[in-house]
Structures are given as structure tokens and as C-alpha cells.
Design brief:
The chain is 43% helix and 13% strand. The longest helix is centred in the first third of the chain and has 23 residues. Helix 9 runs parallel beside helix 10 and helix 15 crosses helix 16. By secondary structure, it is α/β, with parallel strands linked by helices. It has 16 helices and 13 strands. The N and C termini lie far apart (55 Å). A hairpin with a 6-residue loop joins strand 12 and strand 13. The strands form three sheets. Strands 2-8-7-6-5-3-4 form a seven-stranded mixed beta sheet, with helices on both faces. A four-stranded antiparallel beta sheet has the order 9-10-13-12, covered by helices on one side. Bound molecules: pyridoxal-5'-phosphate. The site of pyridoxal-5'-phosphate (PLP) has 12 residues, from helix 7.
Length: 426
């Protein structure tokens, strides 16, 4: 246990310890008083309410004015992350340009290495972006399409990536083929088969949204990427909602282009994303932000950004360390459990249509109520019961997305169930 504690604190300090800047160097001591590694050593079964209440109380400050079941937007930072972030903001502010010029370059490069290790890839295969949209735009707009190439996507993909591909189509660079994924596929193989059937002999890229922001469907990226690769087709994968919510190995996905963010399920402050490109593919990718001096096979050619949010990037090590302590398996199982509580209850209601397969999803799932407008249902839940969900576009009826987080109690989810039932019965 002692060794574990030491290791944990070392991890927290990594990337933050900078000679000559005592404010950063003391971050480890500061954290020692706020994180108890014992909390993460044992326990944490998905249905252990006592455990999760303890974690929620100790590590999360959330508004008590409403029940937040819209954690799909962005994640609440755990207290030690928030406190470190606040210190980092103060430090970058008080230090000014000396910090940016003399310290930050080396610091950010060590943070990048730490992030790459977390993702199990080489630091030469990632860049830190401001969000997943930026990461994926760099990949999509930089992809070496040739005249006549086609891109395959479905209605459950994220609208920003769809728009980026549609923009390329409008410019005459590609043709987009979009299909409707069944909302309740029975198995992963059925999902793979859907993509396989839609492939044409001109398909060059498949857009994969690892976890749909609309209904939470988890797409079996590795299986689809393998099937596509056999046919000479690339996958560009949007793992914005997968990283931190689901256990997966980035290299094992077999997708050569993957965009993610750290401000959803990793719990970093808002403003950090990651683009991964497999080493041997980097040279093919065209730069979006002008850069003529960096080598073609150096991923830094894609990261010619202006001034970046220092404090956000500096907080990445503590976010990763906290997330690792909690453990993605434990997080994932808890989220799946919370989702199952409400689906198990509401699927018994004739008026409710669940539009997410319970066992091919994790935290996020969606529903609608027959003959009711989704916006009105979401509005009712918020105004009458102080429960925040969000309505999403999906076909002609739309859906209401429900996303608990690790600090959500089963009692909150049950209140949501009661509220929906009361709406059906008015
Ligand atoms: C599936 C998916 N992809 C991409 C994004 C965009 O993420 P970001 O806000 O980090 O650009 C989101 C945001 O909700 C998302 O749900």
C-alpha cells in the first residue's frame, strides 16, 4: 500500500515538477492532503451506493439545485483536479511570458509524453488540441483524398464531423454516403455488417463514432477497422465519448486516425483534446494550420497552433492520475449500472421507446415518449423536477439523452424514473 501511495503521488507530480517554479513543484504536497489512495484500493462495486456516495461527497462539488443527467456535455472536474487547475491558472498568470518562454515548452513536451503513455502510444503519434472537434478536423481536412473518393457515415455520428465531410463534399473533393444505423442492433456483428453492406468500391474512409453522442451506441471500432483495412479503407474514429468512459486500447483499435478529448470522461478542465495518427501515416496528412518547416513525417507539423491554454494542459497529469486511480473498469461498470437502473424501469412502460441497446452502451442512453415532443419532455423534467437531460435530433421524432456520471447516485436516477412516469400519466 505504501508503495502504491508513493507511486500515485509520483504520477501526480509528473509533468508538474519544474525547477525554479515552487508554485508548481509544491503541487504534489498539496494533493497529498486531498487524495486518499485508500479510497481506490478496494470496493467500488457498481451497485455499492455507500462507496459511490463517499466518492461523490469527497471528490466532487456539484450543484445541489438540480440533478445533472447531462454529463455528456462535459465532465465535472474532481476536486483535486480543479484545485490544481486553479493553481496552474494563478501560476501562469503571475509568471507571465517568462513562464511561457522558459518553462512551458519543456513542460508541455513532458506532459505530452505522459499522455501518450496513458494512451499506450508514442508521443510522436499524438498532438494535444483544444478539443475533439479540432483534432478530427485536422485529420479529416488533412486526409489525402483523391477525386472520386467516397466517405461512409451514419446518422448516429457527431454533427460537427458530418459537417466537415459535407463541407469537403460541397467543395467537390469527396462524395458522402450516409446510412441509417438500426437503433437497436442485436449484436456487434450486426453493426459491423451494416457498415460492410454500405461499402462501395469507391469508399475510402469510414467515419466511426466510437460512442454515439445521440444514443450512446458503442460501435465495435476494432472489428470495423479490421474489416475496412482488408478492403483498403481507412477509418477516422471519433472517440470523444469513449476515452475515459470505456476500457479500450488505442493501438488495438486498429484505426489510424483517432480524435478524442479529455474534458468529458477524463475530467480535465475544458480545452484539451488529442489527435492520434499512426506513425507511418503522418507523412500523408496535409496540414490545416500553415507549416512549411516541420518534417512531413513529424506530427508536430499538424500542431501549428497559436497561444495555447497553458493551465488546461498543465492540469492533464493530475486528471490522468486521478482517472487511473479510480480505474476505467470501475467507472465503466458504475455508469453502465446507473444507465441500466432507468432503462430496466422505463422499458416496462408502453409509452416509452428506448432507442439505445442496453448492452451495447455504457453511461449514455436515450428514449422518447410516444406522441410527445422530446423538447417538451426535457423541458418538463427540468422545470417540474429540476432534472437536466437534453433532447437530441434523431430521425423525425428525436430523443432525450440521459447521461449520469460517477458522482450520480442511484437515488437520483430513480427520481428521474419517477419524473418520467409522472409525465406519462398527466
Ligand atoms: C461524439 C462526439 N464527438 C465529438 C464531440 C466534440 O467534442 P469537443 O467539444 O471536444 O470538440 C462531441 C461533443 O459532445 C461528441 O459527443
Amino acid at each position: 500500500m505504501r508503495n502504491n501511495r508513493k507511486k500515485f503521488l509520483q504520477q501526480l507530480g509528473a509533468g508538474l515538477f519544474v525547477a525554479g517554479l515552487p508554485g508548481i513543484a509544491s503541487a504534489g504536497n498539496f494533493l497529498e492532503s486531498t487524495i486518499d489512495v485508500n479510497d481506490f484500493e478496494n470496493g467500488g462495486a457498481a451497485d455499492d451506493e455507500k462507496y459511490w456516495k463517499h466518492i461523490a461527497h469527497k471528490y466532487y462539488t456539484v450543484s445541489k439545485d438540480y440533478i445533472n443527467l447531462e454529463n455528456g456535455y462535459y465532465g465535472i472536474q474532481p476536486k483535486p483536479v480543479l484545485q490544481t487547475f486553479q493553481k496552474n491558472i494563478a501560476l501562469a498568470n503571475s509568471e507571465g511570458a517568462r513562464f511561457a518562454r522558459k518553462v512551458y515548452p519543456e513542460l508541455s513536451s513532458s506532459i505530452k509524453k505522459e499522455l501518450a503513455a496513458f494512451l499506450q502510444v508514442s508521443a510522436e503519434e499524438i498532438i494535444i488540441t483544444r478539443n475533439a472537434t479540432e483534432a478530427l478536423n485536422i485529420a479529416i481536412q488533412g486526409y489525402p483524398f483523391k477525386q472520386g473518393d467516397e466517405v461512409l457515415m451514419c446518422q448516429l455520428d457527431y454533427f460537427s464531423m458530418i459537417e466537415t465531410f459535407r463541407m469537403l463534399e460541397k467543395k467537390g473533393r469527396i462524395k458522402v454516403n450516409a446510412f441509417d444505423m438500426p437503433l437497436l442492433p442485436a449484436s456487434e456483428d450486426e453493426i459491423v455488417e451494416q457498415y460492410r453492406q454500405e461499402i462501395t468500391d469507391k469508399t475510402k474512409v469510414i467515419l466511426l463514432t466510437h460512442v454515439s453522442n445521440i444514443n450512446g451506441l458503442i460501435v465495435p471500432v476494432a472489428k470495423i477497422a479490421a474489416m475496412a483495412k482488408q478492403r483498403g479503407i481507412d477509418t477516422i474514429t471519433d472517440s470523444a465519448h469513449a476515452l475515459g468512459q470505456l476500457p479500450f486500447s488505442l493501438p488495438a483499435l486498429g484505426s489510424d486516425f483517432v480524435g478524442m478529448n479529455l474534458h468529458k470522461w477524463i475530467g480535465n478542465p475544458i480545452g484539451a483534446g488529442v489527435l492520434y495518427i499512426k506513425k507511418e501515416r503522418i507523412k500523408e496528412v496535409n496540414v490545416l494550420f500553415g507549416d512549411v518547416n516541420t518534417a512531413e513525417d513529424n506530427i508536430s507539423k499538424l500542431a501549428h497552433f497559436g497561444t495555447t491554454p497553458f493551465a488546461v494542459v498543465m492540469t492533464i497529469p493530475i486528471s490522468l492520475a486521478f482517472h487511473k486511480q479510480m480505474g476505467v473498469e470501475r467507472i465503466s461498470q458504475r455508469l453502465h449500472y446507473l444507465k441500466s437502473i432507468w432503462i430496466n424501469e422505463l422499458e416496462k412502460q408502453d409509452a416509452v421507446e428506448i432507442v439505445t441497446p442496453k448492452n451495447i452502451s455504457c453511461a449514455i442512453a436515450s428514449f422518447r415518449i410516444k406522441d410527445k415532443k422530446v423538447a417538451e419532455v426535457a423541458d418538463y423534467l427540468f422545470k417540474q423536477h429540476s432534472i437536466l437531460t437534453v433532447n437530441r435530433a434523431l430521425g423525425k421524432d428525436g430523443c432525450i439523452r440521459v447521461t449520469p456520471s460517477v458522482y450520480t447516485g442511484a437515488d437520483d436516477v430513480k427520481k428521474f424514473v419517477t419524473a418520467v412516469k409522472s409525465y406519462i400519466n398527466v
